[in-house]
Fold:
Amino acid sequence: MRITLYIVASLALMALLGAFAYSITTDSFTKELFGITLNFPIYIWVSIPMGILFVTSLLHIMYYGTKLHFKDRRWKKDMETLKDALYWSILKEPSKHKYIKNEMKDGASILDMCMIETNSSAEGLDNRFVRALEIVKDINSGKFVEIKDKNIKKRLSSTNPLIIQNTINRINSEDSFVEEVLRAKESFHKSVIDSALDKFVSTATLEEALKYVTLLDMSNFYKLLDRVDTGEKLGFNETIIDKFVEALDFECEDFMRLSVTTTKKLKPLVNIALFNKYRKDNSKAENAYLWILFDYERVEDIKEFLEEQRENEFIKYRLLLELRANNHHFKLEDFIDKKSVCN
Structure:
């Protein structure tokens, strides 16, 4: 009930009742109360209970109205907090929120640990949610979004999935940004660095790749070798290969993969000398060296190498050498699987 209407109606009722009593009689009535003699016209005495009821009811209304007002304010404040929690969860940056009402605290606090995924239209929502959903939609679609809202830029951390994906989107759309990421690798998430490296090795020469060799892994190096295999001029030679072998942690499988490319691109004597050097420095290169010798049919070199090894080592190679010595013309690939020879 509106308090103004109640006051006006109550006063009007009191006035009507007083006027009605006045129309009946204008006599006075005397009453002694607590030693005080009260002498009022009868219409005043009739109005006094109404006035007392009016005042007490008004105080009652004001008390509970004020109580309800503050309760309503607490709910509204909690609703604003809830909206803020939803907003940051949509932007994949959930954070701690404080709620006043226990009813809200018990349920809504879960948003402080959640990232919300949406797949419907933002039509009809608050403008703040519309902007957030547009950002999410554009980033997830592969677009690079320049986030202009300073509050959003300040709150979104470097580990935020949206920030990571947005940075990857920028890598995919801006070639000049790739090396900027690699130069400032400490400022970016590992997946961003991996994406930048993947983009970088798809266009860089081997000499350029050496600038970031400490960041490269074998999958990056393999992509460079794949490009060499397809005929791209990346500056592939024994000198540059040495630098990669020194910098990267080569396993047996990696030497085998490298031998595929060197056999295609280097002269036989250069290739043999290169892997002879590697196998002396690292036993993990022995399979690749032996494979190259068989591929070039360097029988004397094969025998010399096998004589240096224990008899229970390189059994398949020994058997193949013996079969060939007895005019059994097995192909190397048919007898030994290059992909599993290291296992």
Q: What stands out?
A: DSSP finds 17 helices and two strands in the chain. The chain has a mean pLDDT of 88.
